[in-house]
Amino acid sequence: MQAPSRAVSSPPAAAENAPRKRRPPRRVEVSRVQILSPAMRRITLTGTELQGFEAGDPASYLKLIFPEPGQTEPVRPLPDGPRATSMRTYTPRAVRPEAGEVDVDFVLHGEGPASTWAAQAETGQVLFLMGPGPGYQVDLQAVEHLLIGDDSALPAFETILARLPATARVRVLVEVSDAAEERALCSPAQLSARWVVRAADKQHAGLALEQALRQAGAPAAQSRVYLACEAAAMRRIRELLTGELGLPRSQIIGRGYWKLGAVNHPDHDYGEDA
Ligand SMILES: Cc1cc2nc3c(=O)[nH]c(=O)nc-3n(C[C@H](O)[C@H](O)[C@H](O)COP(=O)(O)OP(=O)(O)OC[C@H]3O[C@@H](n4cnc5c(N)ncnc54)[C@H](O)[C@@H]3O)c2cc1C
After folding, report:
1. I need a surface site. Which of 40, 86, 254, 260 has the fewest CB within 10 A?
2. Per-residue pLDDT of the chain in tens (274 residues, 90 and over written 9)
3. Residue 113 CB–ligand 1 contact under 6 Å
4. How many Cα atoms within 13 Å fall on the side-chain side of residue 158?
5. Mutate which of 258, 263, 269 to test ligand 1's pocket (most atoms within 8 Å of Cβ)?
6. Assigned CATH class of 26-133
7. C-alpha of residue 115 to centroid of ligand 1, in Å
8. How many angstroms is it from 230 CA to the middle of ligand 1?
9. For ligand 1, is residue 261 a contact (CB within 6 Å)?
10. Three-state SS at 238
């Protein structure tokens, strides 16, 4: 028997607290590994289970599950099972539905299930992929754009750059681990890019970005900013933008893409904490 319908709507808090429905994991195989720079690998993932996968917005994300130590391939996660400890967040850099392929660009930053795996990745190796999750709503009417971040945000920046109209101006400020990481960026928009190298000690992540931003001075008042880097650095740079440089907070999207000393930094921490 059908339950009688009730005209009672759930309070918003209940809706927010409802567990997010996870998309089923898709088994994917490595079909190509490209060296983009000494510390960046482009890994193409393919598989019949990728059917229907679409990237949607620029700077959207996917989750990848890597093999645990001793496994040759990860175990397929159960729909409502616990989260795999070796799951990490990445940007779908390019999605080619007709070929059933997704490109993911990995920073080789050192120890970590994702970085360690990417450094040894070979054709035929298996991962599980989940997502996609929402990305950045590019304001197509805005004339001035500013992308500020480190190497982990480069793939996201490139997806944003590709969407900007020719009428827009975009300034990119990227912090990398070494000058050899610099590479050409392109966009239909009028693009200027500045690359800065961070100090060898990770504790200084974001410092070179902050300094370069200060040197450059206040961005145009209407600039739309996408800011993504180490979480604490992101908070400092966002403060610099809204304080000294006078940009309204509403024009800035800030994302902590990783966090010093934290394993699998949760991407829902958008830097609101102290
Ligand atoms: C929405 C979103 C999109 C992202 N897209 C990409 C992407 O396309 N490409 C990409 O390379 N990364 C991307 N990242 C960042 C990536 O998820 C993290 O760097 C992740 O922590 C890497 O996992 P891991 O297993 O290598 O290291 P973890 O096990 O998570 O961390 C191990 C140690 O390494 C440090 N660490 C982690 N990441 C970095 C880093 N980038 N640089 C220096 N030290 C680090 C941590 O502080 C920790 O001490 C994205 C993050 C988010 C939230």
Report:
1. 260
2. 333 333 333 334 444 455 556 678 999 999 999 999 999 999 999 999 999 999 889 999 999 999 998 899 999 988 788 888 999 999 999 999 999 999 999 999 999 999 999 999 999 999 999 999 999 999 999 999 999 999 999 999 999 999 999 999 999 999 999 999 999 999 999 999 999 999 888 899 999 999 999 999 899 999 999 999 999 999 999 999 999 999 999 999 999 999 999 998 875 545 444 3
3. yes
4. 17
5. 258
6. mainly beta
7. 8
8. 9
9. yes
10. helix
Q: Which of 170, 169, 173 is nearest to 148 (CA)?
A: 173
CA of 258 to the centre of ligand 1 (A): 5
Ligand 1 atom nearest residue 133's Cα: 1
- Tell whether the torsion through CA atoms of 79, 85, 91 and 95 is positive or negative: negative
Helix (H, G, I), strand (E, B), or coil: what is residue 105?
Answer: strand
Domain boundaries along the sequence of the chain: 26-133, 144-258
Kindly state if the Cβ of 226 falls inside 6 Å of ligand 1: no
Give, using CA atoms, the residue closest to atom 10 of ligand 1.
152
Q: What is the CATH number of domain 144-258?
A: 3.40.50.80
Q: Report whether residue 229 contacts ligand 1, using a CB cutoff of 6 Å.
A: no
Q: Say whether 144-258 and 26-133 share the same fold.
A: no
Cα 102–Cα 108–Cα 111 angle in degrees, nearest 5: 120
